[in-house]
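PT: before anyone asks, these are the final sequences, not the draft ones from last week. 1125 residues across everything. Please model them as a single complex and drop the result in this thread when it's through.
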Amino acid sequence: MTLLRVEHLTMRFGGLVAINDLSFTAERGHITALIGPNGAGKTTVFNCITGFYKPSEGRMALQFGDPAVWDEIEALTERGQRGLECRAGSLFLLERMPDFLVAQKARVARTFQNIRLFPGMTVLENLLVAQHQPLMRASGWSVLGMLGLPSYARAERAAIEKARLWLDRIGLTERADDPAGALPYGAQRELEIARAMCTDPVLLCLDEPAAGLNPSESAELARFLRTLRNEHAISILLIEHDMSVVMEISDHVIVLDHGVKIADGPPDVVRDDPKVIAAYLGVEHDEVSQVEAEVGL
Amino acid sequence: MAAEANNVASRSSLLLALRAAARTALIAFGLLLPLIAFRAVHDIRNELVLETRWPLFAAFVAIAFAGRLLWELLPRESLKIRLAAFARAPGQLLSAAAACLVLANVLRLAAKSLADTDAAIALAFTYLFAFATFAFVIGAVGAWVIRRYPAGTETGRQRRHQIGVGLRTGALGFLLVYPLMLFWLAGSQGSIKWIDNFGIQILIYVMLGWGLNIVVGLAGLLDLGYVAFYAVGAYSYALLAKSFGLSFWILLPLAGILAAFWGVLLGFPVLRLRGDYLAIVTLAFGEIIRLVLINWVDLTNGYAGISGVPRPSFFGIPFTDGPDGFAARFGLEFNAIYRTMFLYYVILVLALITAYVTMRLRRLPIGRAWEALREDEIACRALGINTTTTKLSAFAIGAMFGGFAGSFFAARQGFVSPESFTFMESAVIVAIVVLGGMGSQIGVAAAAIVIIGGTELMRELDVLKAIFGRDFDPTQYRMLLFGLAMVVIMIWKPRGLISTRTPSVFLKERKAVSGAHVREGHG
Amino acid sequence: MEVFVQQLINGVTLGSIYGLIAIGYTMVFGILGMVNFAHGDVFMVSAFIALIAFLILTSWIGAGLIALALVVVLIVAMAMTALLNWAIERVAYRPLRGSFRLAPLISAIGMSIFLMNFVQVAQGPRNKSIPPLFSEVIVLFTVDGYDVTVSYKQIAIWLTTGVLLLAFWYLVSKTALGRAQRACEQDQKMAALVGINVDRTISITFVIAAALAAVAGTMYLVHYGVVSFADGFTPGVKAFTAAVLGGIGSLPGAVIGGLAIGLIETLWSAYFSSDYKDVAAFSILIVVMIFLPQGLLGRPEVEKV
Ligand SMILES: Nc1ncnc2c1ncn2[C@@H]1O[C@H](COP(=O)(O)OP(=O)(O)OP(=O)(O)O)[C@@H](O)[C@H]1O
Ligand SMILES: [Mg+2]
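LR: through. Structure below.
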């Protein structure tokens, strides 16, 4: 079952073509990895999906609920609408939505390559900000909350409970009342994931979650991501340079180079693809064996 | 050997200090030569001629030299350590307080037997030492509390919390009885000035500071045109009350709503600008509103302003001398102080409402979103927060409180004119928020007291007249010192008096967040 | 038509003054990323320095040789204002470099208030007016009894502006100093690593900005013949508008923006109402910032996520 379908995505910055005619799909309940050398355009793909950049061309559709809703896509495109929400399911054309609506309505959550926590707010507050939308509704857009109605107090308690659950999972309960900026680097990365999870996403986009972690932390992260997928039925789009993590947990791998997709398939197939190796080594792919011989592979 | 080396070292450090001082003096010479040594004045024929002020100029340069020399030679580090130790020792602070008390009394007695000028100076120092006594006693008590109840322990934390609550209750109680106490102490003649200039005036700025704090301190949007909303509130009240005869209590909320409406209107297009751009655009808005108030003479009467603005009544009973007046109705003798006291309580209540609403909002999702916005706007958007409406709500609520304060201001003065709404006014309010420590309500209140109280106090210092001659006008130096203080405070404490942040919610315990983690606004 | 040409001439004169101040905003913004709020007041102080220097000179050498006197006045004003701005950067901004972002802006606002009130206290609150200089005019042409004129002082202002701009242009685009400045704009840490003295480069930027502001200040004094302590704020905001309009960070942009603001202001006063001319300038500022934040010649800024 397809969750996200990216078709002919192109992103230009002036003369620079950061993504060139990229198409791929991400399946529901899968971990889809997006890999490629530095500057390949991976983060740019994330920024397009999450609405931070308006792509120059292309369509990005996300669907959850009953897959039959997919049939509406052409009609939706024709009508120029940004999405469709009905009881059976929802379908969104992400390129037509502003960033906050992608998160709010299409339920895509993300983390950033350079961690973006709220450093001056406590760990707990970070997780509550993530639950802004439901809490806002519970507080009657602040009016009822100002009046001090018990319904809001209940909602807030529930939100704190949910935050505590995630804190327990990442082992940060003890530090709930410390500022996020005071946490060690690895904990900040985990907190950012937990914060994204607190928005109840259907798609979680992680930009290099293992960057800066030591091998044992990376292994733990891989385990964590796998349980997320298995227990929360969440789909993950993962950018990662750490191949051990990618190969271990991903169901599907897409390889980008200079904005172009050069490989797409299960991890063990992609791993041995000469084009991929060439891209990572920075040579033309017919020279791969030569280079490999030189470095003694 | 060692002594000799020491000697050489100290001599060379003296030499270095002298050289630095000479350089500073030279720079001061260059900086002050044109505008201090010379003064362009119009003579009788209205032609510009130069006056020279060499002694004054020489004095300034000498001060620069001596100041720098002292700065270089003082063992600053050890002084700092010793000062910190002193500030933490209750006993020493108490003895300092006692010494100040003795000095104050000696001076007070001396003042009685001195001549005119000297007596005034002596009296000024009496006040100074009395104030110092007070400060040292408070410091001693604080130091004792800190020593007695260390922050690290559970009981210490509880006690400190209790003391904090007690202090706040005490402060509130003091505010409530302040005018009555003055009235009782100084009578109606003596107290009216103190209730008005130091009570009402400060409270207006406390309220404005708290209102702007929502925008600048919480949401991190630097608004340099806040005075525009103050003006909208004031003119709304003045115009509507004069032309429709509506009462203060109807117009107060209306003025707030109008100001909030303007906040949304102005905020909508500009809120996606980055920090300093936003500052300049809001400044431009503030200026435009002021210029329109000046130039739209038909409506606003231009520079001359609107006079005869109806004063607020005691819920329908006017504060006038007559059978229907407040005094007559309550069987009192007519006295202007009743109105002043009433105004005092009105602004006190308004300010407290501002504080209360802000406190509540901070603990609601909207308040957390404001602070999150200040910390990282992009992360907010990734979490599905509509940053435009969130910013707008901060802008509108801040503007609303500005509007309340404005309509109160118009009702209290009975007169409004564009002169009260210059950029300088905005700068003062921003300075209060920043000096207070962005986001901290206690800090903002303290800053308002220091800045407004300080500048008001300068009016009172007749002693300066005694020292510098009759035509010396201390109020001239108010803004000069104010500007200087802004620079100095930014350098000394860029995050304001209270730089820690109190979390809006906690799991186990509420720990203050150190200012080092808290981000500033960025647009 | 004749009114239009006359206003064009006046507008270019005013625009030259705004342009010179605007360069100061743009340069400082380029290198420090801060709006130097006190720059308008530095301009005002420079006009006062020029006034004092002018009075000293004329009391020494009498009313003859005015042209020579003005050259000396210009140089004195440039030097002293440069010293002032150097000191301001040293005292009020340098300690705040790398502090939180609003701190330097607020410090600059404080400095602006200080300078304005310092001049008020030191020189008195009254307007200071000097007798008109070089106000002889050349009649360019006459239509229906309306003379279109240009005065010698206007020509002098254009020439000075032109020459100084050329010199300045050479300085920042062709010399090592200009290179260092551009390097600091890009990345101060990196610039320091490759051996550029960042502190000195920033100081020099402030010095140049002040010198140009002093040229503007002297011209302002000569052109209007009157200064007051409050004359820094409005021209300052207008010059900032010019810098934004031209594209902040761009030097030719600042000049073009200055000319544009000068022209708009004079034309507005001529055709609409001079009451609302400042409203017009402020409105332009807002409109430009909202719809064209990168200005005419600036590079568009893409938000990097
Ligand atoms: N806002 C922008 N403006 C201009 N160019 C951009 C922008 N964002 C990205 N680029 C360019 O697009 C290209 C792809 O960048 P991107 O950040 O997507 O790479 P990446 O695959 O994430 O690399 P890395 O592994 O280093 O994170 C780069 O050449 C980058 O300079
Ligand atoms: Mg990337």
